[in-house]
Write the structure tokens for this entry.
Amino acid sequence: MSDNAFPDALPPQYGLHWYVLERVLGQGGFGITYLARDTNLDQPVAIKEYLPVEVATRRPDATVTSRTDEHDERYRWGLERFIREARTLARFDHPNIVRVHSVFELNNTAYMVMRFEEGETLAALLERRHALGEADLMRVLLPILDGLELVHNAGFIHRDIKPDNIHIRSDGTPVLLDFGSARHSLGHSRTVTILVAPGYAPFEQYYSSGENQGPWTDIYSLGATCYRAIAGRAPLDAIARSKGILGSTQEILVPATAVGSARYSDRLLKALDHALSFAEKDRPQSIAEWRKELAGGKPAPAPAKPAPVIPVSTVSSSRIAPMVWGGVGAAIVIGALAALPWLVPGKPQPVAQAEPAPAPSQAEVLRRMMADEQQKFAEERKRMEEAARELQSERRRLEEERAKPAPSAKPRSEPPPRIARATPIPEPAAPKAAEVTPLPLPAPTPQSAPPPAARAPGPAELLASAERAQARGDYGEAATTFKALAENGSPRAMVRLGDLYLVGQGVERSDELALRMFRGAYEKGDSEAQQRLGDMYAKGRGVPQNNFHAYAWYSAAVLSGNAAAKGEQERIGATLQTVEVEQARKLGERYARAAKER
Amino acid sequence: MRRFALCLLSAALVVGCATDDQKRNAINDVNSEFRVQYERILAELGTRVYRTNLDDAFPALRSALGRVGMRVGDQSPRMGYLSVVGPAPAPLTDAEWRSAAERDLPKLREIATQHVGVLGRFVSFEPEGLEVIINATALEVRNGVEISLTARMREIAPPKSGMPRREYLPPSAVRMGLEKIWNEFERELRSARTL
């Protein structure tokens, strides 16, 4: 809206039927949520717009369109799911489940209209209070269990429970937001860590396409959310846990019974540890079973009408501005907005089935994961070899063409001038000249140019074409074009080329060159490059591993409007001292400001 | 023989009768206590603003940290970021470390004793097996350059599975280390006649 932090958002006062937008409540990788006014009923509502930024973009006429033809199918599929799940959600009339009023299609996308409620997310509450006492925690947990049981019994699972997706109303009652299976619409194109919430997602969500997921998946996430509320930090991520179990690291999850000892009842802590069991078969298999443990064998108190509980502080208007996610007036959908969610998998998943399919053992799961990795590696290698062959033949062809004498009558015989470089790439030198096969880029259309249909493709088209080539596995072609565009100063091409250097697709693998590309794109103010630099520091690729520096880069990316970096920022932040987080955040501000100044 | 560091790793504990749970609880409590004090000390001594510019402040910072025995691990001079690492007791000398340890030992033993009983009386601070990492930032502000320092410990060998990491330095060592670094930094700035 008017806020530069949300460049893709619709402007204030924009009308969607009888709803008038007021401001953005938040944006994630899958959509934007607005505070709006229903002018018929004269009341505020929250409206979530489907806009998965990875595959779609906003056009000047406000419509949303897929980025390329290749993205169209995924965009359409996601859109359908969005609508279908809004309809499903609308069926649930429960005080602790987000209330959906309506869904409609407009601007080539869809909008979900939800009840707007004052309050804040559990994440924000925990940020302020660090931890919750047992009584407060149970006042959040039990009503959520009640709502979730309804969802499970209807055959759905949430898939994305975390503190960001639990909203605490002004009267202290909780409501579960953002049913997150929308993420499936983007399928495997994104890294898994973006699709799941590190620390809150169980292991099966990292590797399985859905067949091993069930109520026990949500129970793990709820257990992890409670762990955060008692320990002051999210539990160790499932991937890190798997490494500890395999013995490649010595990290294991410190049990709730250890971190909460003497502050919480043994009954609660044991129930949390049970919920956080690594293997899905070891966890409670249903909400009813887990509730029984929480209540110590006694029937749990009926949670349908919980006592007003945690006092949610009224945030003064002066605090609202810096709180991107909302503060007072935070809509029911604040927070992860990202996950336009939805309830479930491609096929409806019977949740309360009497005999769930037998879950594989932990060792079997890990073996399966390693076998998958090996297979992917073999396929990748094959693709790389093919790409290298194609690249070689393309180079030969170009050399032959260049060697031919140019017939003077044909304008095409002269190599078209390259597009002038707007600004030279500063520090991050482009790859060595010998490695670059610059693609002749088109000159601005001269007066005598052929009709539009015959014109040479512009940089944007070349970029899109290279991205299509990358998507279909023609890495050699993609790399050649990205290199040429990067040489001419395209930050996006630099990022894409950096990605190829990271995995060695179409080019020889080189962390150093990847780093140069990302730095080059950063110098041009690209927020995706800032996220990549965070990744490089987090993983120690091309640079010494440094979580502090990674956090600074992720912060810069988030400040530059890259909401997708937020998850990684939070994950890395959990490994830092509070004072380090503050210090790194300031450094991130410096990075973001410097990029904007350029 | 001096082994491992901080708290709870005295031979008595490792070999003794304390259970893993007791040791874990003791380390957690020591971490909590040291964290509180560390944050208090940083609020007082962790950040300073100098009337200078980044071009002068950054080299001075790097030299100052080098003088106290730290080596550069990562840096971005243009942006004002510097990460240095050194084997404990750096940035302190052996004598300074012993002096700091003596001051903090009673508190450490008091906490340890609550969890492991009489064994807690034998724990000690030892610097071996530890590295100290300092993150320094130099950010331009309206009236000069704001320098911030944070510090953490890192165990060279990974901790025993399930054991919390010990990341907070003894409070007296933090205070002493910061004062030492600021003194060196100011000396560097003075020598460049920019203070």
Q: What stands out?
A: Chain A is about 45% helix and 10% strand. The first strand of chain A starts at residue 15 and ends at 16. The two ends of chain A are 23 Å apart (CA to CA).
